Amino acid sequence: MNYTLHSNFSEINALAWNALLKESVTDSPFLRHEYQTAWWTHRGGGEWQNAQLILISASEGDQLVGIAPLFLAEYDGQRALLLNGSIEISDYLDVIVRKEDHAPFLSGLFDFLAAQLADNWHGLDWYNLPDSSPTLGVIKEESAKRKWTHLEEMYRPTPRIALNVSFDDYLARIDKKQRHEIRRKMRRAEESGRVRWFISEMQNPDAEIDAFIKLMEDDENKAKFLTDPMRAQMRAAIHAAHQGGWLWLAFLEVDGQRAAAALNFDHNNKLWGYNAGVDRTFMELSPGWVLLSYILQWCCDNHRAEFDFMRGDEEYKYRFGAVNQFVMRAKVVKG
User: Fold this and answer.
1) pLDDT of 11
2) Nearest-CA neighbor of 67 among 122, 23, 119?
3) What is the mean pLDDT of residues 74-97?
4) Of the CATH numbers 1.10.1040.10, 3.10.270.10, 3.40.630.30, 3.40.225.10, which one belongs to the domain with range 160-308?
């Protein structure tokens, strides 16, 4: 494999990048070319003030076979290479490479980094690796071979609901009490004659984003999270998803007023639940629960294999029948 260090994302063809991602060991929306570009432009909404892009591709002949989107920054006491998108707002990260090329790509990548960057970095700190990713095992093996200090730890739960069934079959699988609660709240909303939900057609993207952010802000913690840099980051990510064709933004209205919103990504035959907002003025109609119920019904009707709540262990996720998987942290210190 021939490795190349790039100075910006435009140096790798977006179509070739996303085509490789479809066949990669980890295919997540956070690894798409348009998301990665948007994240780097805003550095995670100001999460990283001083960082250097280390974007590396590997090719065989004229064929792209691997991508390592990294950046270099001071973190946790070392000059570390992190995965682009780290840490807080990109739920699943990894290198981009097919399974059959994965181990030689990573081994060659570490050789390339040692040769080209030499003493500029002291280790790796890779967050949000899916617990199923072979990257975890290869990092451990390469660390032992190179006499690097290696640490692996569970970082966050990522609850998910397996679907590919009818909505009735999905409901039949969850706790009886919760099943009745979901049906009761949906029925109450429908019988009120006040409620409707819809998937945004994004005819006016900025207005739709404004409506979504306004609902997010109704939560005090989310309002604090939405600093000016983070607002710019969120807008860029939503625009990137819309332009890439994988944005799935839904609203629930009560009496014609938007009462709940859910920002999801429709990617790789599943829906990824990224964020949500609720106007607490309408809590008697449980708008958040009702909208989520409609979303899961849509997933069943449209043959999505899974709904992924992504990081976080909020109780409501498990009440809807989610089962934990995890994202991991792999840290390496060079010997």
Assistant:
1) 98
2) 23
3) 96
4) 3.40.630.30
Residue 216 to residue 226: CA distance in whole angstroms = 9
From the candidate CATH numbers 3.40.630.30, 3.40.1390.20, 3.40.50.170, 3.40.190.10, the one assigned to the domain spanning 2-157+327-333: 3.40.630.30
119: pLDDT strictly greater than 90: no
Taking the C-alpha atoms of residue 59 and residue 67, their distance in angstroms, rounded to an integer, is 9
At 175, list the tokens.
């706790």
- Give the three-state DSSP class for 208: helix
> Is there a contact between 25 and 135 (Cβ–Cβ < 8 Å)?
yes
What are 178-182's contacts with CB under 8 Å, separation 24+?
178/319, 178/320, 178/321, 181/319, 182/289, 182/293, 182/320
The pLDDT tens digits of the residues spanning 39-54 come to 999 999 999 989 999 9
pLDDT of 191 reads 96
